[in-house]
Design a protein that fits this description.
The protein is of the alpha+beta class and about 80 residues long. The chain is built from two helices and four strands; from the N terminus they run E-E-E-H-H-E. It has a four-stranded mixed sheet, covered by helices on one side.
């Protein structure tokens, strides 16, 4: 089984990180903190792999589901030109 990849972006208006891109079928999540979204993904990814990818479960019984978590948050900073 290959690594799964999840990219979370910050939504300024909602005040949360959310799953923007992922190769985990059916994955969606949001949280106010990076730590919070990481905790959610630790539970949700293995569950979704079991439910939505039976072909992986038929060939092997993985005890681990590796994933890479990337976060993006855009912010404008002011320069003091004095």
């Amino acid at each position: 089984m290959g690594n799964f990849s999840v990219t979370c972006e910050w939504d300024d208006e909602a005040g949360v990180y959310y799953v923007a891109e992922s190769n985990v079928p059916g994955l969606s999540a949001e949280s106010e903190t990076v730590e919070g979204i990481h905790a959610i993904l630790q539970d949700r990814i293995p569950e979704l792999v079991r439910l939505n990818m039976p072909e992986l479960m038929a060939h092997e019984a993985p005890s681990r589901v590796p994933f890479d978590l990337y976060t993006r948050r855009h912010q404008d900073l002011m320069l003091d030109c004095a």
